[in-house]
Write a structure and sequence with these properties.
Helix content: 40-55%
CATH topology of the largest domain: Aspartate Aminotransferase, domain 2
Structural class: alpha/beta
Order of helices and strands: EHHEHEHEHEEEHEEEHHHHEHEEEHH
Low-confidence stretches: none
Strand order of the largest sheet: 2-10-9-8-5-3-4
Number of helices: 13
Distance between the termini: 76 Å
Largest sheet: 7 strands, mixed
Mean pLDDT: 96
Number of domains: 2
CATH architecture of the largest domain: 3-Layer(aba) Sandwich
Number of strands: 14
Bound molecules: pyridoxal-5'-phosphate
Shape: globular
């Protein structure tokens, strides 16, 4: 290449992010990311690491010593959980009711595990009776489930019941809490979850890059007494212990700026109070839901397992889901997403996460969506305009 490429200054569009993540980043988090770097072993950074770990324990509602941000996106903390806990020859039970159960399966297989399934349709939670039946049929070592399934807008209810079933069969429980941490009630210790992983760019409203993970001592004992090393060197928790544990020795260069960002995002959680934050997500997403229903739209999940941080809305017949998404992006700089897998073409996915979970954003989504639907010939007044029976 002879000439230097003529690439202009970076000017990304000013989007409002109401999709499945990333969510809008809080200005304080963006500011934290523009502060100077220190070394990843600098005494001041060691202090920051301790603070992030404390804040993560608070947010996960756990006393687990083993609570760290994994370098990488949510899939990195996911692979750290699965790749360390599942040993070659172990049997892992994974769900089939959404996109991320499939990813759990791939990771468990790559770790050398045998995979068995607990089935439920996309858009529905797991039935504890089916989980129990799977445990009766197979000898299961690790049970993974998705607390907040971002592909379907379903929140798994009755988590304690699921962990009880697994523990009565001496299995370990891994929970995907990527779209619940910091947005939806989640109590790692009280619900007896052995391992939970998450991501920063959903309800924590932080850019992707350093992803929360917590393991209790029981799970960590299994990890530290493995016969065979995990297949990933980078995500080997017995090695990461050297950096995040007592020793604080070099393993890899931590993404310093992402750790700053996560610290500030978690400080915002602590300032608001975790329970108040869950409450806010319920209230603001509740406004979104009522507004959608007032337009004659239907939520995909019934109230018992509706996920406030990710609202799956049925696409009305005759409306092109992609045209609406494009209209919102082009005319309103507003991001929402389409359905995946079995729900492709059937739902829109509207996130209501962290800093994006504000009344202002909800009003914006509702008015922009009404306009986009009308452009598609859908009558948003139909509910109120419908003649009554009496
Ligand atoms: C987003 C997401 C992931 C993966 O996170 P990435 O940051 O995209 O790697 C895993 N599980 C669920 C439920 C998610 O929503």
């Amino acid at each position: 290449m002879e000439k230097a490429p003529d690439v202009g200054e970076l000017t990304p569009p000013d989007r409002t992010l109401m999709g499945p993540g990333p969510s809008d980043v809080h200005p304080r988090v963006l500011r934290a990311m523009s502060t100077p770097l220190v070394g990843h072993l600098d005494p001041s950074f060691v202090e920051i690491m301790n603070e992030v770990q404390e804040l993560l324990r608070y947010t996960f509602r756990t006393d687990n010593q083993w609570t760290i941000p994994v370098s990488g996106t949510g899939s990195a903390s996911m692979e750290a959980a699965i790749g360390n806990l599942v040993e070659p020859g172990d049997t892992a039970l994974v769900p089939t009711n959404g996109y991320f159960g499939g990813r759990m399966q791939s990771m468990a297989e790559r770790a050398g595990g045998e995979v068995v399934h607990v089935d439920a349709p996309w858009g529905e939670p797991l039935d504890p009776a089916d989980v129990e039946a799977a445990f009766d049929e197979h000898s299961i070592d690790v049970f993974g489930f998705v607390h907040a399934e971002t592909s379907t807008g379903v929140k798994q209810p009755g988590v304690s019941e699921l962990t009880d079933i697994a523990h009565s069969h001496d299995a370990y429980v891994i929970a995907d809490t990527v779209t619940s941490l910091g947005g939806v009630e989640l109590r790692v210790d009280e619900w007896d979850i052995d391992v939970a992983y998450s991501g920063p760019q959903k309800c924590l409203s932080c850019p992707p890059g350093a992803s929360p993970l917590t393991l209790n001592d029981r799970a960590m004992d299994k990890v530290l007494s493995r016969e065979e090393e995990p297949r990933s060197w980078y995500l080997d928790l017995s090695l990461l212990e050297g950096y995040w544990g007592e020793e604080r020795a070099y393993h890899h260069t931590a993404p310093v700026t992402n750790v700053y960002a996560l610290r500030e995002a978690l400080r915002l959680v602590a300032e608001e109070g975790i329970e108040a934050r869950w409450e806010r997500h319920l209230d603001v997403a509740g406004e979104l839901k009522s507004g959608l229903e007032a337009m004659g739209l239907e939520m995909n999940a019934p109230d018992e397992y509706w996920l406030p941080s990710l609202n799956a809305v049925r696409v009305p017949s005759g409306v092109d889901d992609g045209a609406v998404i494009a209209h919102l992006l082009d005319e309103y700089d507003l991001e929402i997403a389409s359905g995946l897998g079995d729900l492709s073409g059937e739902i829109w996915r509207i996130g209501c996460m962290g800093y994006s979970a504000r009344p202002k954003n909800v009003e914006y989504v509702l008015s922009a969506l009404a306009d986009a639907l009308e452009a598609e010939g859908y009558d948003t007044e139909q509910v109120t305009a419908a003649p009554s029976d009496d």
